[in-house]
Automatic annotation (TrEMBL):
Name by which UniProt lists this protein: Light-independent protochlorophyllide reductase subunit N
CC cofactor: [4Fe-4S] cluster
Name of the gene this protein is made from: chlN
Pathway the protein contributes to: Porphyrin-containing compound metabolism; chlorophyll biosynthesis (light-independent)
Sorted UniProt keywords: 4Fe-4S, ATP-binding, Chlorophyll biosynthesis, Iron, Iron-sulfur, Metal-binding, Nucleotide-binding, Oxidoreductase, Photosynthesis
Catalytic activity: chlorophyllide a + oxidized 2[4Fe-4S]-[ferredoxin] + 2 ADP + 2 phosphate = protochlorophyllide a + reduced 2[4Fe-4S]-[ferredoxin] + 2 ATP + 2 H2O
Membership in a protein family: Belongs to the BchN/ChlN family.
Enzyme class at the top of the EC tree: oxidoreductase
Subunit structure: Protochlorophyllide reductase is composed of three subunits; ChlL, ChlN and ChlB. Forms a heterotetramer of two ChlB and two ChlN subunits.
Gene3D superfamilies, A to Z: Nitrogenase molybdenum iron protein domain
GO annotation (BP), single: light-independent chlorophyll biosynthetic process
Organism: Cyanobium usitatum str. Tous
Protein purpose: Component of the dark-operative protochlorophyllide reductase (DPOR) that uses Mg-ATP and reduced ferredoxin to reduce ring D of protochlorophyllide (Pchlide) to form chlorophyllide a (Chlide). This reaction is light-independent. The NB-protein (ChlN-ChlB) is the catalytic component of the complex.
Amino acid sequence: MTTGLAEQPPLQLFKESGQREVFCGLTSIVWLHRRMPDAFFLVVGSRTCAHLVQSAAGVMIFAEPRFGTAILGERDLAGLADANDELDRLVKDLLERRPEIRTLFLVGSCPSEVIKLDLAKAAERLNTQLAGRVMVLNYSGSGIETTFTQGEDQALLAMVPLMPSSEVDQLLIVGTLADAVEDRLVQLFGRLGIPVVTSLPPRRSTELPPIGPGTRVLLAQPFLSATARALVSRGGQLLTAPYPFGVEGSRAWMAAGAAAFGVAPALVAEVLDPLVERGQRAIAPHRELLAGKRLFLLPDSQLELSLARFLQRECGMELVEVGTPYLDRQLLDAELALLPPGTRITEGQDVERQLERVRAERPDLVVCGLGLANPLEAEGIATKWSIELVFSPIHGCDQAGDLAELFARSLRRRAALSFS
Ligand code: SF4
């Protein structure tokens, strides 16, 4: 006689490498510049880079944009001009016109990396010249090095060395949240008796939260590996939990924060259980549509494991395959533990082979990047753009119904377009 546990097949983990079909890290400027209105993101790149950021952000007609591109011309790319001089001149012009800028991010791109333009040195040089008037930081958003969410990881990583040291007991939430969602989570942590809750990135780029041995670091996004490691090396204590998507993940995430401060489980239940019940009620109508539907997640945002867990456990979907660009076990073990036994997980990408599997499996819904969505829709397969999930306020129990609705909407739209 065997136990049920022994019969369960383990997760199936595969690695793939080949052609990738993902956006680069420049994309994250779209949500980072909204978060920190006193910062400016200057991409040092080509017209293609400028076009990507413009189209990802939409055209801003009335507001002065808080991002731009220093375009490397053919002479720069051929090494015939000194791109450093040009960059310094451009930065000075920009700061004269825009005195409200407090932090300037120089963002590297594929072209700046190909010509080996050293933006770390440029930032150092400009910091000396500007003498404290503006803080200049640099990071890479290049498609050679980053997928689109890693752009945020790199931007936050650049800020870590500037965070003041402190021994104060605090909960540090890491990862960009919509302001209203953040306010709500801070209020809930306050009700749980955690008095000091800070955020990285902060709302004002100059008001960086402190870091030190009293800091419990709670990641709001699963794609912040480099930032997490840097915060730990500054003395922070990294809490591990599922991520705050859906009621189950959100409850477990908040409970992990509470446990790190010794909050009694009874108080956690008193504060959070009503939210869980309300969230489950909000999910219910979408679950009716999603339950039993087959889901294939292609690797793109690094949110895939968390979304798979939410859609399978709370919405009743069946997982065909869960792809992720990278699998950081330290940051994702709590999510892996909640996936059903036998789930096929692939790390990395060989896009042609993955598309072959999608076509063979004919799932009801594919979560993927923008570049793959249209061709799959044309083949009659419903899709959900993964990029929409980083632009939408989806964190927390209160947002669980909206999160489920984002996926149900794709199925409803396809049903409405179906003439058969
Ligand atoms: S950084 Fe690279 S991948 Fe991104 S838009 Fe520029 S050239 Fe394209």
